[in-house]
Design goal:
By secondary structure, this protein is α+β, with helices and mostly antiparallel strands. The chain has four helices and three strands; from the N terminus they run αβααββα. A hairpin with a 2-residue loop joins β2 and β3. The protein is elongated.
Amino acid sequence: MLHNPTRLAVAAFLSGCAEAEFAMVRDHCQVSDSVLSKAASALEDAGYVEIRKGHVGKRSRTWLSHAPTGQGSLARHVTALQEIVAAARNAAAGTRAE
């Protein structure tokens, strides 16, 4: 699920806050509304993100937040990426030593 760059960027951004407005996430991830909407829906379907809709004055707003499942999944994904990098560095160091 988090192998998609946009979904990973959204999950990483949300890990640093309790909740974020859709436009803030969109701007940080540098994607269009439609790309973020698709990514957020996929993350919501997987139980990683919660989407809340409401109004500020007369304007509709959407907020995104990490679901507990999403926080754990992001942590495991980051750990797996770190392990891949460490293995690659160890392999590269081993080939230089020969």
